[in-house]
Amino acid sequence: MRATPPDTRTPPIQNRQTITMTHPAQDGEDTVNAHVSRTERTFKVGKLDVLLRTSTRRTKDVGITARGQVVVRAPHGTTTMEAANLVRRRREWIYLQLLRLERSRAAPITKVLAEGEEFHVFGTPHRLHLADITDAEQPVTTHHDPETGPRLHLDRRLANRPDHARHTLIHWYAQQAQNWLDENGGQLVWNPGKNTTRLRASVRLSTALIAHRPRHELILSWAAAQLTDANLRVLVADTLGRAPADALHRLHGTYRIVWLGDVRTPATSCAVPHNATSANEVSAPTSK
User: Fold this and answer.
1) Among candidates 183, 214, 211, which has minimal Cα distance to 285?
2) How far apart are CA 205 and CA 223, in angstroms?
3) Residue 106: burial class (beta carbons within 10 Å; 0-12, 13-18, 19+)
4) Where are any strands of DSSP class E within the chain?
5) Strand 61-65 to strand 70-75: parallel, antiparallel, or no bridges (unpaired)?
6) What's the whole-model pTM score?
7) Residues facing 88 on adjacent strands
8) Listed residue (267, 261, 232) closest to 247, CA to CA
9) Each residue of 250-288: pLDDT tens digit?
10) How far apart are the C-alpha atoms of 84 and 10, rounded to whole Å?
11) How does strand 210-213 pair with strand 13-23?
């Protein structure tokens, strides 16, 4: 039986645009703002819609945005055929990430900035308490009341300022995630002789919960600090390809309780969304 020759045709380009934009430095990085010339065009690989984004970077990689968009990031001069070949090589990884994203999607959770609203901290539900906090350095704190249980204290002055409240809560969760990484991350990603992975929490990742750039860094979303310690360990192990299937099933079930940043005041009907950014991507291992 004669083998079918591979399809070497260049995928049709659907659109193209050149963008000049400013990239802000991410938390924990020393990068400064810089104007970057970027070109974008879309094409199809089979049934996959792919966005090719070229810039002055030197390497190629594939990512999945929070909305399920497949993105190839590559240097200027990368052809559509080269990008399509990279997608074909990573097709199994891409479909796995899209499946996980689909399973994790649910009706978005909106938190009301009112007394008694529930926020999860490492799997433990905490009731919101609007408190008179004078320490500007700690506008969010946790307390355990013997009668009412765990409480999350938020500066009451933020109750009518949903944008500021969202920003404050997300940064507080990111600090909890960073503390967890500092305490537990090293033993989870340890690789004898090759343990150079940087561990950091991000205020920008949300739906993806975690991103991994092999030999470089593992990034944990602020939203992951809502998961239990056991599920956080599974999340990291899954990202590193070490998690058992039964543990993954339990982990995916917990995604439904994860709050992704939408808040509103009791008097408003519209939530303040936590807008996805280009950082809301899961990245495949880097390929030069």
Assistant:
1) 214
2) 8
3) exposed
4) 13-23, 34-45, 48-55, 61-65, 70-75, 110-112, 118-121, 124-131, 140-145, 149-155, 198-202, 210-213, 217-221, 262-264, 281-283
5) antiparallel
6) 0.61
7) none
8) 232
9) 776 677 788 989 999 987 655 666 654 444 555 665 544
10) 8
11) unpaired
